[in-house]
Amino acid sequence: MAAKLISLACIRGESSSSSYGNLSPRPHYPSMPKYPKGFLSLEQEKGMDGPESKALFSVVGMTCAACAGSVEKAVKRLPGIREAVVDVMNNRAQTETIRETIEDVGFQATLVEDETNEKSTYVCRIQIKGMTCTSCSTTVESALQAVPGVLKARVALATEEAEIQYDPKVISYNQLIEAVQDTGFEGILISTGEDRSTIHLKVEGLRTSTNSMRLIENSLQALPGVQEVDIDPELSKVSISYKPDLTGPRNFIEVIESTGSGHFKAMIFPQGGGRESLREEEIKQYYRSFLWSAVFTIPVFLTSMVFMYIPGLKDVMDTKVVNMLTVGELIRWVLSTPVQFIIGRRFYTGSYKALRHGSANMDVLIALGTNAAYFYSVYSVLRAATSSNVKSMDFFETSAMLISFILLGKYLEVLAKGKTSEAIAKLMDLSPDAAILLTLDSEGNVEREEEIDSRLIQKNDVIKIIPGAKVASDGYVIWGQSHVNESMVTGEARPVAKRKGDTVIGGTVNENGVLHIKATRVGSESALAQIVRLVESAQMAKAPVQKVADRISKFFVPLVIVVSFSTWLAWFLAGKFHGYPKSWIPSSMDSFELALQFGISVMVIACPCALGLATPTAVMVGTGVGASKGVLIKGGQALESAYKVNCIVFDKTGTLTMGKPVVVNTRLFRTMALQEFYELVAAAEVNSEHPLAKAIVEYAKKFREDEENPTWPEAQDFNSITGHGVKAIVRNKELIVGNKSLMLEENIVVPVDAEEILLETEGLAQTGILVAIDRKLVGVVAISDPLKPSAAEVISILKYMKIRSIMVTGDNWGTAKSIAKEVGIDTVIAEAKPEHKAERVKELQASGYIVAMVGDGINDSPALVAADVGMAIGAGTDIAIEAADIVLMKSYLEDVITAIDLSRKTFSRIRLNYIWALGYNIIGIPIAAGVLFPSTRFRLPPWIAGAAMAASSVSVVCCSLLLKNYRRPKVLDNLEIGGVIVE
C-alpha cells in the first residue's frame, strides 16, 4: 500500500467547519450572543493565543480522501488543536499533536522534519529610477539575472520596478540594490521577504551616537519574533522586520519608549516613503524641468522665429556685436546653453550609463541629436565672430526646443503611467486609518476602548467595528451581528450576513450592526495585502508578445544612428555634387546645414519608448480593471493565453453547481418515523467528511431545531468505503449508507421500487443515497446540488463566442449527463479522478485547442496547472487559487466570460499600440529623412520631430488608459445574477 502524506495547517477554527470560513449569507440570526464567562481562558484552552507549535508527519497507509478525513477527524478531537485541514496535494502533515492519535485510527505516522517552516527564497521589490525605454529595462534585468543567488528577476518599464526572487543565504537585498546602481540607475527598496512583515517607526530623540542606536537595536532584537532592525539616524527612522504571530508594532513602541530612561518617543513613520510618493516626486521633477526649460527656450524661439519678422526688433536682433556675430545669435547661445547642459544633463547621464554597459537607449538619440545641433551652432557663431564676411547660421532653437518638448512628453508620460496603476492605489486605500482596540478583562468583558492607528493592530487583538466603519483587519466575529459589504475586495454585490464565528476581510464596510472581531491576519498576511501583491506581480509579468519589442530594442537605436548618419551623408553629398537644384535650399541655410537638419530629424523622431510601453501599460490597465471587477488576472502570460481560448473545461461541483449539496427528497420502504430514520443515518454520516454526508447531517439538524449543535448517537465500528459510502453500528443496528454498488457488494437486495427511484433521481440531476438497516433496504435519500444562477446562459454565450464547453466531474454518469443537459453542454466526462481531468486537458491541447480549466477544489489543481489558462473560483481552496492563472473572486460563473472578453479587449489594445508605435517609426523616419522633400518641398524641422517623438509615447499610454472605460459584455447585464440561499 503506497505511502501518502497530508498537510494539516494549524489555524483557528471551531469543531464545525461551517462555522468558520463560510462567507455566504445566513437566512436568520439567533439572539445576540454575549461574551461567556471565562471567555479568555476558553480561548487559551483552545489554543487561540500564544505561539503556534507545529510538527510534520508522514502518514503511511492512506489510499484516498476518506482515509485523510478519518485522520483529520481524529486529530481535530484532541484538546489544544486549533484546526487540522487536510490537503492531500501538498503531501505533508503538520499538526500540534502526537503521532499516537494518527496511529489510533489505523495508520502509521512518522515524525519528519518540517521543511515548510523556513522559506529558502525571498522576493525583493526595487523601484528603479532613470529607465527610459525597453533597452534600459533589459540591461537591468540581465545584470540582476547574472548576480549569484538570484533565481529570477523581472524588470517592468511601465511600473519602473524590479521584482527579484533570491536566496537570502547567498545574497542580501542591499547587494541587489548595488547591482541595480552598478548598471547606472537609482535603486530604492520597496519591500523584501514575502514571509516577513515590516514596520517603519519615527523615533524622536534618536541621537546619531552609536550608543543610543545600539541600545534601541539590542532592545528590539531581544523581542521574540524580531528578525531584522535597520536604523536610519538622519531620518530618525527605525525599520523592523518581524513575525506577526509572535510580536507587533505596539510592542516595539513600548520597548523603544521604555529604553533610555524615557528619552525616546516612537510613532508610525509618516506616509510618504512608498511608490506613490516616488511617482509624485518624479512627476514634480519633470514638471519643474519643463518649466525651467520653457523659461529659457521661449525667448530662444521668439528671437529665432518671431522677432525676425517684426520691424524694429529685427534691427535690434541683427545688430553686430563682434564682426558678423549679432545680438540675436548671442542671446540664443546664452539662453540655450543652460538648457543643453544643466536642464538636459539627465540625457547625458542616461547616455553614459547605457553606453558604459554596451547598450543604446533613447537618451543616446536625444544627446546625439541635440549635441549635433548645439555644437554646430557654436561653431557657426564662433566663425561669424572671427570673420568679417561670413554670416552665422545657428540651430540653437533646435536643441533647446527639442529638450523642452521631450521633457513635456516625459512629464505627460509619467502622469499617464501613474494612472495605469490606480487599481493598486485604490486597493491600498481600502484599509482604514484608525481602529478601535478593545481591552478585555479575565472574564471577557470590555474594560477599555482605545482608538489606535490601524497599522498598530497585532494578531489576536479584539477590534470593535461600528456601523459604517471599515473592517480594520482580517479576523472572525466573536460578538455581534451585522451585514458587511465585501464588494470592494471580492466583488460580491450583496452585503454578506455576519455573526459569531464568521470571518471578515480587512477593508470591507460594516453596514448596520456593531461587531467585535479577533484579528487573525495582519500586515502583509491580510487578504487585502495578498490581493495587492497578486495585482502587483501581475503588472510586473511580461506577456510573451512583449518579446517582439525586446528583440527590436536590441538593434533599434544603433540602426537609427546608422540611418541618421546615412541621411546626413546622402543629402550632404547630393548638395556637394549638385544632385539637386540650388533652389531647393532655403535662403537661410546652405547644403551642409540642410543635410544636418535632415540627419538630426531622423535621430530624434525615432521612438523606442512607444514600442517599450505598448504591452506593459495595456497589461497594467487590463489587470487593474480586472481586479476592480473581481477578476484577478496573474499577468501578461495569462491575458495572452486567455484571449486565444477556444475550449473551456468546467468542473461540476462548486463550479457549475453551488457546491453545497442539500437533501431534496426522502423515500422510506418501511414504516418508521422520519426523525428516527435521520437520527440513525446522521449518527453514521457525521463521521464522514464527504459533502453528501454533510448534507445529510445538516438536513437531520432540522429535526433538532432546539439545539444549535446536536449530539448524535455514538457510532461503533465506523468504516468509510471510498467512493461508495459508510458502514457503522448505531443503537445496536447495523447501518449501511451509500450507493447501489455498495449495496450489491454487501449482498443487500435492491427492490424494483428503489431502482426506479434511483433512475428518477439521476434524471433530475440528483444523487440517490441508499440506506440499509440490519441488511434490509429501508429508504432512499435524494440529494441535489443546485445549479449556479445563469449557468445555462453562460454556456450559451460561450457557444455564441465560438468557445466549446466540456464538463469533467467525479460524479456518476447519470447525474453528470442530467446536469450537462440542463446547462447545454454536449461533451461530458464523468467519474473522473484528478489525474484523469489533467489527462483530458492534455488530450484537448494535443487536438489543437487552447484550453481553459475552471475549477474550485484540490482535485482540480492538476488540471488547472495543465490547462493553458487555469481559472479558479474565488470561494474554492487556496491550492486551486494558487494553481490558477485567473481567480474569479465573486465565484460568479459569468466572470469566465468577463475574463476572456477583457483579455481580448486588452490584446486588441496591445495590437493597436504596436501598430501605432511601429507605424509611427516606419512612416516618421522616412519623412524626417526627406523623402517628401524633392516632390513637395516638405521637411520636418528637428524640433517638430522631437515633439512628434514625445507625443508618440504619450499617445501609446493614453491608448492603454482607454481600457479603464472597459464594460463587460452587455448580454451579461441581462442575466439574473444572484445567490441561491439554501434553507
From TrEMBL:
What membrane topology does the annotation report for this chain?
A: Multi-pass membrane protein; Peripheral membrane protein
Please indicate if the UniProt record lists Flavoprotein as a keyword. no
Please name the GO terms of the biological process aspect recorded for this protein, alphabetically. plant-type hypersensitive response
Ion transport among keywords: yes
Where is each HMA domain found?
53-120, 122-188, 197-264
Q: What is its EC number?
A: 7.2.2.8
State which residue ranges cross the membrane. 289-310, 330-348, 360-379, 399-416, 555-574, 594-614, 914-934, 940-963
Tell me which UniProt keywords the record has, alphabetically: ATP-binding, Copper, Copper transport, Ion transport, Membrane, Metal-binding, Nucleotide-binding, Repeat, Translocase, Transmembrane, Transmembrane helix, Transport
- Localization of this protein: Membrane
* Top-level taxon of origin: Eukaryota
Enzyme class at the top of the EC tree:
translocase
Catalysis: reaction(s):
Cu(+)(in) + ATP + H2O = Cu(+)(out) + ADP + phosphate + H(+)
One GO MF annotation is: ATP binding
Entry GO CC: membrane
The signal peptide stretch is none
Q: Which Pfam families match?
A: E1-E2_ATPase, HMA, Hydrolase
Matching entries from NCBIfam families are given as: ATPase-IB_hvy, ATPase_P-type, copper ion binding protein
Family affiliation: Belongs to the cation transport ATPase (P-type) (TC 3.A.3) family. Type IB subfamily.
| Name of the protein | P-type Cu(+) transporter
